[in-house]
What does this fold into?
Amino acid sequence: MDTATQKQPFEVEIDLPVRTYDIDFAGVVSNIVYVRWLEDLRLEILARYFPLEEQLNNGIAPVIVQTKIDYKLPIRIGDNPIGKMWLKTMESLRLSVSAEINVNGKVAAFGEQVGVFINLQNNKPIRIPESLKQKYREFVV
It folds into this structure.
């Protein structure tokens, strides 16, 4: 998705395949799988806008400090969920992302994550890198 068709800053959308090992004893996708899907979505944002290799070369890395998921509808084997994530807010030290997981045009789950970047030498939070802030400004102007 290019920036001209995006509705939200850094918005990405990917297919989220349901694997047989994702199913719990009740026949639905296990709650923990949604956390993995949020990670897949977040990594897609990073790959497009602030690659991990670039971060590591600069001695920094992203860290999630909070995850919240609201489960709305069960997802089962054979369903074809689609995940969408975007940057909700960016502050001096923290940023938050929002996500939706949809099946057949219906929202199956909402998610939110809060993260920071850390200095890999001392594991302390740092300010949001300027290059990422600049890319964000291009979306919100």
